[in-house]
From TrEMBL:
Alphabetized UniProt keyword annotations: DNA-binding, Transcription, Transcription regulation
DNA-binding region coordinates: 25-44
The keyword DNA-binding appears for this protein: yes
Transcription as UniProt keyword: yes
Name of the protein described by the UniProt record: HTH tetR-type domain-containing protein
Annotated ranges, domain HTH tetR-type: 2-62
């Protein structure tokens, strides 16, 4: 990326991360990046393109995936590592419960707030794109079973969601890492070639 484009993405990302706006306006991003609106539009003709770039940057920063490309490590192990990284911010036990409480509080009123719904949809698309990119890498190596890619992505993310919620449930006896790993390995085996 060039310096101006980097500044625009950094400004938009900062606005989202700081919670100032879930879908930052062109004017706010341009002002924060120190560029004119026309310069921003030159680099990002639509707000959707800007937001997709922001979500990709946020996912890349939060969930590094360089090892997905390391063919010296078995595909199953690389995908497991990437999926486990998705669980890192959630924590375990009390920390996981607090994570879910805060998440649910932050989305109170989501039904009536179109901007919040749009931000959540953007986040969901970002997660889908991230997992799909991992499967694309492994597919190019012949490691992914044939099938509907979007369904494979949904399946893996649904399992991740279940494990994440399981971490927060006190009745589950706080899932241990070995059981989590086993569940994720079962899910991975369902999408990789035998």
């Amino acid at each position: 990326m060039n310096d101006t484009r980097d500044r625009i993405v950094a400004a938009a990302t900062a606005i989202v991360v700081e919670g100032l706006e879930t879908r930052p306006s062109v004017r706010a991003v341009a002002a924060r990046a120190g560029v004119g609106a026309s310069t921003l539009r030159h680099h990002f003709p639509t707000q959707r393109e800007l937001l997709e770039t922001v979500w990709e940057k946020m996912f890349s920063d939060q969930y590094p995936d360089e090892r997905i490309h390391d063919t010296s490590v078995p595909a199953r192990e690389r995908l497991l590592e990437c999926l486990m990284n998705l669980l890192t911010p959630i924590g375990e036990g009390g920390q996981a419960r607090e994570f879910w409480v805060q998440l649910l509080r932050s989305f109170e009123g989501i039904v009536s707030n179109t901007r919040t719904k749009s931000a959540l949809a953007d986040f969901s698309r970002g997660a889908d794109a991230r997992v799909e990119s991992w499967l694309d890498v492994l597919s190019a190596e012949g490691a992914v079973a044939p099938g509907d890619r979007s369904r494979q992505v949904l399946f893996l993310l649904t399992v991740i969601d279940g494990v994440a919620i399981g971490r927060a449930m006190p009745a589950s006896g706080d899932l241990d890492r070995a059981r989590e790993r086993g569940v994720l390995e079962d899910a991975i085996d369902a999408v990789l070639t035998p």
